[in-house]
Design brief:
It is built from 10 helices and 9 strands. The chain is of the alpha/beta class. Helix 7 (203-218) runs antiparallel to helix 9.
Length: 315
């Protein structure tokens, strides 16, 4: 049975319309351009953590949007930036590695006519692919409407985009238009996931990321890139989930800052993370946090894999 016949059989078995579409879409762009915020907005639920700090996302994160028209599997990738250590190298490979394995590419940029060296590096990568590229001008809520047109003109001179969509991931303005544009370029097929699936991420990984997000938003500038979160245990009992997690940092001096005077900072991180973890799990949570020092963990292949940054994901 060839692929077309297989899809036809699946559609008939599951009652899926012949014009149903499904496919994979990657979001790429410079750090802090709003990829995670946009993906969360499009699927209508928080899947990827966000903060004002660049390179918040470290893994490729899959989120799923399903409608009567089709299913879009989004890949939120780390911001493309020059690697400074093994973690940075992993993040760069994770981002660029998606370009050849998806059906549509969303390139997020900010509403500025100046195209910097980071954007030009991405342009060179995009010129090598035959996939449809949709240019997404994000953060339109931060500029006057007339300032968006020069940005569109500047980028259109560099690449033949399938579509150009200005929007605001923060407010949701014009995101419906983006979904319609994506559907135009997806192949006909069957859903990859059940209609109630929003992400393929394991619960433990989502919990770890939610804790890391609250740390990113609470700690001083010099610490966040040097932290990871490891979930030591998750035990379910009646109406309660006991979670023991460890925040990993690189320096002894950072450990004291993360803990805070009398444990105040650690309590703050925990109190901010707990409500969102409870919402995600649908249960009360007893969250216990510890802090450990693992010097230079971002340059250790063993520790990177131990914290969930597996190199096979970038192949």
């Amino acid at each position: 049975m060839d692929l077309d016949a297989y899809f036809a059989a699946q559609r008939e078995e599951k009652g899926i319309p012949e014009n149903y579409k499904s496919g994979f879409v990657t979001l790429i762009g410079r750090p802090n351009v709003g990829k995670s915020t946009l993906m969360n907005r499009l699927v209508g639920q928080k899947v990827s953590i966000t903060s004002h700090r660049p390179q918040t996302t470290r893994n490729r994160i899959q989120a799923v949007y399903t409608s009567g028209e089709g299913q879009i599997v989004f890949l939120d990738t780390p911001g493309i930036n020059r690697a400074k250590n093994r973690l940075g190298d992993y993040m760069l490979r994770a981002a660029e590695g998606t370009l050849g394995s998806v059906d549509v590419i969303l390139w997020l940029v900010e509403p500025a006519a100046f195209i910097g060296p980071g954007e030009r590096h991405i342009l060179e990568q995009l010129k090598k692919t035959d996939k449809p590229v949709i240019l997404v001008i994000n953060k339109t809520d931060t500029v006057k409407r007339e300032e968006v047109l020069p940005a569109i003109d500047a980028y259109r001179k560099e690449l033949d985009f399938a579509e150009v969509v200005p929007l605001s991931a923060r407010t949701g303005d014009n995101t419906r238009t983006l979904l319609d544009c994506i559907m135009k370029y997806l192949p006909y097929g069957v859903p990859f996931y059940d209609e109630d699936t929003v992400t393929d991420q394991p619960e433990r990984q989502i919990v770890a990321e939610l804790i890391r997000e609250k740390a990113l938003r609470s700690l001083d500038d010099e610490i966040p890139h040097g932290i990871a979160v490891a979930i030591e245990s998750m035990k379910y009992r009646k109406n309660m989930v006991d979670i023991h997690a460890t925040i990993i940092c690189e320096k002894d001096s950072h450990k004291g800052i993360i803990i805070g005077k009398g444990g105040a900072m650690l309590k703050t991180i925990g109190s901010k993370a707990r409500p969102e973890i409870e919402d995600m799990l649908g249960n009360k949570v007893n969250l216990q946090l510890w802090v450990k020092v693992k010097k230079d963990w971002r340059d250790s292949d063993f520790l990177l894999k131990n914290f969930g940054y597996n190199s096979k994901d970038t192949e």
